[in-house]
Structures are given as structure tokens and as C-alpha cells.
Amino acid sequence: MRLAPVFLASVALLLSVPALALDCAQAVTTPDINACAAADQKKVEAELNVVYKRVLQNLELANTETENDSKLKAALIEAQRAWVKFREADCKALFTRYEGGTIRTVMYLGCMQQHAEQRIKDLAEYEK
After folding, report:
1. Please, are residues 38 and 53 in contact by the beta-carbon 8 Å criterion?
2. For a tag on the chain, would you pick the N or C end, based on fewer CB atoms within 10 A?
3. Cα(28)–Cα(52) distance, rounded to whole angstroms?
4. Are 73 and 59 in contact (CB under 8 A)?
5. Going by C-beta distance under 8 Å and a sequence separation of 6 or more, which residues neighbour residue 70?
6. One pLDDT digit (tens) per residue for the chain, 128 residues
7. Which has the closest alpha carbon to 94: 117, 78, 114, 80?
8. Please, are residues 119 and 45 in contact by the beta-carbon 8 Å criterion?
9. Which residues contact 14 (CB under 8 A, 6 or more apart)?
């Protein structure tokens, strides 16, 4: 479990450093693959945040019409918080599974990205 803070700090560093002419289609080294996975995850995370904020905003606009919309917004916020905790725990478990290998970071980032992509689809249902 000691590696988790170091790993998370490494991921944060990867997410904050722009990829300088890194061709992800040609990435073969572990650091390059991890950097590309981090960049992809960062994009999906940004999209997730936009969709979530838009859904909340739409519910807030509708909020003036019925009390049910207010309850729905509160329920969605609670669900999102629970989802964030679940996703983190699920992906940390996957990271632990691959703890001895160089693939662990890309597996963790892939897990985070897959969950985010699915959550974007789930949140989009609130806009229908």
C-alpha cells in the first residue's frame, strides 16, 4: 500500500506535463505508453466533468418547475460521489493486482478511463 501515494504522485506528474511531440501511435517504452494513457485519461476526465456539470446545470434550470427536479439533482450528486469512490477503489484493486509489473500504471489508467467513458454515457441519459 506504500506504493499508492508514489503511484498517484507519478500519475499527477504525468497528467500535468504536456506530451512534447510524443507520437502515441508509435509508443513502445513503458514511460511513453504510460504518458499516452495519462493523456487519453485526462481528455476523458475533462469530457466527464463537462457532461456532469451540464447535466447539473440542466437540472438546476428545471429545478424551478418541480420539487422532483430538486430531489433528482440531490440524488445525482450523491450518486456521483459514490461513483467516484467506487471507481477509485475498483481501479486501485486492479493496480494492486498488477503491482509487480510495469503494466500496472497503464492498467490503472485504462480502468479509470473505461469507467469514465461509461459514466459519460450514463449521465447523457439524464439529458434525454
Report:
1. no
2. C
3. 34
4. yes
5. 63
6. 455 555 555 555 555 555 456 889 888 899 999 999 999 999 999 999 999 999 999 887 765 555 677 788 899 999 999 999 999 999 999 999 999 899 999 999 999 999 999 999 999 999 88
7. 114
8. no
9. 34, 35, 38
